[in-house]
């Protein structure tokens, strides 16, 4: 049921912002997360952030300035292509000490890469204010969510490219 409502929401999303809104709304509700974000590789040195849910302005500003090389979960998931599961504050602080200053109330977190045809588009992240053990079913759900999100982002990109090409063609035909 959880994945079904996500797929329906993503099918209607035609921009990266709409994709982020759909996956974050569905994901935060399904997981009981305190916050979530979509971070995407961009032409700039920092990651693009088409959407967040549940984060204050300080955290959103920090996400918008996150570089691809940052020692933070989303950037690391995108670089490595591997999901990151932080189940306690101790694990968070040991693996990503910078995260503690950024999200002091976050006890657990997951960051999963968004991959289409072996291209890493970015990462999907969820934060939790309580320690959380991610069981196999939940990990599978988050990975499936990320796969559906990556496909929706790719469709949005291709749709935008097609619309841009159509506009260029129409302009070239004008007298």
Written overview of the protein:
The protein is built from seven helices and five strands. It has helices spanning 2-11, 16-31, 57-64, 73-80, 89-95, 97-102, 136-173; strands spanning 35-40, 48-53, 84-86, 108-116, 119-128. The protein has a five-stranded antiparallel beta sheet, sandwiched between helices. The protein starts with a helix and ends with a helix. The model has no long low-confidence stretch (mean pLDDT 89).
Give short descriptive properties of this protein.
five-stranded antiparallel sheet; 7 helices; 19% strand
Give me the Rg, rounded: 17 Å
Shape: globular
Order of helices and strands: HHEEHHEHHEEH
Strand order of the largest sheet: 2-1-5-4-3
| Beta-strand proportion | 15-25%
Number of strands: 5
- Supply the number of helical segments: 7
Structural category: alpha+beta
Q: Runs with pLDDT <50, length 5+?
A: none
Biggest sheet statistics: 5 strands, antiparallel
Mean pLDDT: 89
Distance between the termini: 54 Å
Query: Helix amount, in percent?
Result: 40-55%
Topology:
Elements: H1 2-11, H2 16-31, E1 35-40, E2 48-53, H3 57-64, H4 73-80, E3 84-86, H5 89-95, H6 97-102, E4 108-116, E5 119-128, H7 136-173
Helix pairs in contact: 1-2, 1-7, 2-7
Summarize the structure.
This protein is α+β, with helices and mostly antiparallel strands. It has helices at 2-11, 16-31, 57-64, 73-80, 89-95, 97-102, 136-173; strands spanning 35-40, 48-53, 84-86, 108-116, 119-128.
């Amino acid at each position: 049921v959880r994945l079904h409502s996500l797929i329906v929401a993503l099918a209607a999303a035609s921009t990266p912002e709409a994709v982020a809104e759909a996956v974050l709304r569905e994901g935060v509700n399904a997981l009981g997360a305190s916050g979530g974000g979509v971070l995407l590789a961009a032409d700039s040195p920092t990651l693009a952030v088409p959407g967040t849910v549940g984060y204050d302005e300080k955290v959103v500003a920090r996400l918008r300035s996150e570089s691809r090389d940052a020692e933070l979960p989303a950037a690391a998931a995108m670089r490595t292509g591997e999901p990151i599961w932080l189940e306690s504050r101790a694990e968070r602080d040991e693996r990503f000490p910078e995260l503690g200053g950024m999200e002091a109330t976050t006890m657990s977190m997951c960051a999963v890469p968004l991959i289409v045809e072996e291209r890493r588009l970015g990462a999907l992240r969820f934060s939790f204010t309580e320690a959380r053990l991610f069981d196999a079913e939940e990990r599978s759900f988050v990975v499936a969510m990320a796969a559906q999100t990556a496909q929706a982002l790719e469709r949005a990109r291709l749709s935008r490219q097609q619309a841009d090409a159509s506009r260029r063609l129409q302009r070239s035909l004008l007298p």
